[in-house]
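[09:14] KT: can someone run the structure on this one? pasting the chain below
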Amino acid sequence: MVFGWKILKVKGNSMFPYLFDGDYVLGKAIRRGEKLFPGECIELLHPDYGSIIKTVSSVQNGKIKVTGRSKLSSETDQIGQLPIHCAVTRIIWRISFSGIKRLY
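[09:31] RB: done, structure tokens below
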């Protein structure tokens, strides 16, 4: 991570058609106390799955629920409700063979 920015490689198709397996994303570190909003794409550190990229579906009482965009993604209930501090990176840009696209 350089100056709070991070490049990640997308693995899997859980965010298809929003993100594709093999795409790269550029994100900015989420600072403690920074708000998250439904619909945002984030990287989170899941206690069982490790680093995953998902979409925020809800934020309530210091916890977040996330979901994938594809039917291939794990179910929201399977991923579970996580403490907000598990959200570590706000995904802002998608870098793919077709070009660069701003997501947020």
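[09:33] KT: thanks! The chain is about 5% helix and 50% strand.
[09:34] RB: yep, looked fine to me
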